[in-house]
Amino acid sequence: MIIAQKILLGAITLMGALNAYAGAIVAAKDSPFAATDAEEAKKMFLGREASIGGQGVTVVYQKEGETRTTFETKILGKTGADLTAYWSKLIFTGRAQAPVEVSGDGDVKAKVNSTPGAVGYVNDGAVDGSVKVLFKY
Amino acid sequence: MNRKLRIAVLAVVCTASTSVAHAEVSFHGYGQTVVGTTLSNNRQFPNGQQFGVPTYSADPNFQPESNFALQATAPVSDSINAVAQVLALGIDDFQPKFQWAYLKYQFNDAFALKAGRLQLPLYIYSDFLYVGEAYPWIVPPQSVYLAQVTNYDGFDLSAEQSIGDWYLYAQFYYGSVHRDFLGQPAPLTGVQDELHIDAKNNLGFTLDATYNDWLTLHGAFIADRITLCCESQIQSIVDALYQQNLNDGASGVDARNDVAMYWNAGIQINRARWVILSEYSGLGYRGDSALLPIRESAYISVGRRIGRLTPMVTYGHQNQWMSTKMTKSIPDTAIDPNTHVPFDTELLVISQSPNIRGKDSYYGVVLRYDLTNTVALKLDFTHYDSHYHTSDYPFAVFAGYTNPQDANRLSAAVTFTF
Questions:
Q1: Which residues of A touch B26 (CB under 8 A)?
Q2: Domains of chain B
Q3: Mutate which of B13, B133, B169 to disrupt the A interface (most A C-beta within 10 Å)?
Q4: Helices B343-352 and B232-243: crossing angle, nearest 10°?
Q5: Which residues pair with residue B364 across a beta bridge?
Q6: Domains, chain A, ranges and CATH?
């Protein structure tokens, strides 16, 4: 019985791990932005959505690190120098504003709540009642 | 763009932060330090009409392809941004000049209008011509990237839209260009004319269609009324033709208000760590051409990402010639009173010179290493192969022209953005 319970507990834990999200795209608690999908999220964070429903979009990235690499791999399909080259093309042609860069989940949550139209990404474990979740990845 | 307007835009950029709450002027920049050599005492890498590749010689030179730029972007209102970019090129002794200075009005999600000094979108990489971080080479392939004029003053209306897996970006633009530059040295005297290009009523469009972020198709077209002045050899022939009342011939030869047309088609593939880049472009004129070069050129580059390394090989070619259709209204027997040479012969000499009738190839290999996300190191070796032989053109021999020499270029670069 004990062994069976352990196996069941292990299975439940494993299923939980398989369903766990790495992170979430978040906006201010009172943001007018609605929940979105992976494709829209990608457009937002590649500077292709200057505004949504009349509200200008400010994109918030985290500084280089594991959280950023995970987000870029799962959502953008571009990382590192490839992504820098992509943004260079937009910034130095005036087609898009450079994303704001902050350090860590706490700074992202503070930034989205203090800047109208700002969207950022945090680790799943950092999601709390201070932000609205637009998409989990 | 006149100096007053440029100063006005810069003033808007600098003061915008005081007029919009919570908005700040943001600064970004880019640059590259490049050193190059031809490895050979008696060879120089081609120059002249070619963008971004001034003469390298045996002595290592840091100036020709190095640059530094600073860009300021300021929100003027929720829908309007002011943007100014100052660029200093090593070839200009690092004298800072406005590369961009414009206001941008974002109508809605899809449409935006820019007005001011803007980049002329002739090529895929026109918009970020000097941003080394944005492309794998040290400079874009010079077989295609030839234009001496890279920006214009005017308006640009852009539109973008996602349709299914496609992302479309289109530009429609109108404006004018003025540029002063030195011509090629005359073969016997070495004298270089001070030339001026005036291109008015530039009307053009570009379309980029990107499929799932890995495939981009590019097309561009522009037409304008172009005036090229004052190439002394051609000007004296034009004046002599008018003197002889050969007005149709004079008008045909004179490069004044001729309609020039340029087109470009390109492709970018970035998939499964393979990178393939290619462009094909052409330049021609409507009707009876003036003595201006007609050109078709292309390149293809193939590379592969291996971790932080991207090796890439490039082949490019360029074919340039001059139409002599305008001479059909000039009688064979008409003689230039200043030189006592038939006009036909004089025009043949010009059309057969290696400055005009060019055919050459470039073979290059570049290695890019991404040191960090914003700093890259590059090493490039390119061989220039001229296919022009004066022995094929007796009039060129007569005028004292010699074969352009083959040459090699070895260059190394550090590129960065901030």
A1: 97-98
A2: 3-417 (2.40.160.10)
A3: B133
A4: 160
A5: B314, B382
A6: 22-136 (3.40.190.10)
pLDDT value at residue B49: 39
Contacts of B274 (CB under 8 A, 6+ apart): B302, B303, B304, B305
What ipTM did this prediction achieve?
A: 0.75
pLDDT tens figures, B58-108? 889 898 889 999 999 998 987 888 999 999 998 888 999 998 899 999 888
pLDDT, residue B367, reads 97
Beta strands in B149-251 (DSSP E): 151-163, 166-182, 194-211, 215-229
Half-sphere exposure of B19 (CA within 13 A, CB side): 14
pLDDT number for residue B54:
52
How many other C-beta atoms can be found within 10 angstroms of the C-beta atom of residue B27?
A: 13
- CA B130, B135, B138, B143 torsion: positive or negative? negative
For residue A48, the chain B residues in CB contact (below 8 A) are 160, 162, 167
Contacts of B135 in chain A (CB under 8 A): 85
Q: What is the pTM of this model?
A: 0.85
How much of chain B is in helix, strand and coil states, percent to nearest 5? 15, 50, 35
**d(Cα A104, Cα A126) in Å, to the nearest integer?**
10
**Pairing status of strand B67-75 against strand B194-211:** unpaired
Q: How many CA atoms lie within 13 A of B187 on its CB side?
A: 18
Residue B8 parent element (H or E)? helix B3-15
Separation between Cα atoms, residue B59 and residue A88, nearest integer Å: 33
What phi and psi, each to the nearest 5 degrees, are found at residue B279? Answer: -140, 150
Angle subtended at Cα B48 by Cα B218 and Cα B253, rounded to the nearest 5 degrees: 85
Q: What is the residue-wise DSSP string for B340-393?
A: -SBHHHHHHHHHHSTTTS-EEEEEEEEEEEESSSSEEEEEEEEEEEE---GGG-
Per-window interface: A 60-79 vs B, CB < 8 A = 64, 77-78
Buried b (16+ CB within 10 A) or exposed e, B88-106: bbbbeeeeeebbbbbbbeb
**Contact call for residues B320 and B203 (beta carbons, < 8 A):** no
Q: Is the peptide bond before B229 cis (omega within 30 degrees of 0)?
A: no
Diameter of chain B measured on Cα atoms: 76
Specify the DSSP element, H or E, that contains B293.
Answer: strand B293-304
Nearest CA in chain B to A76: B213
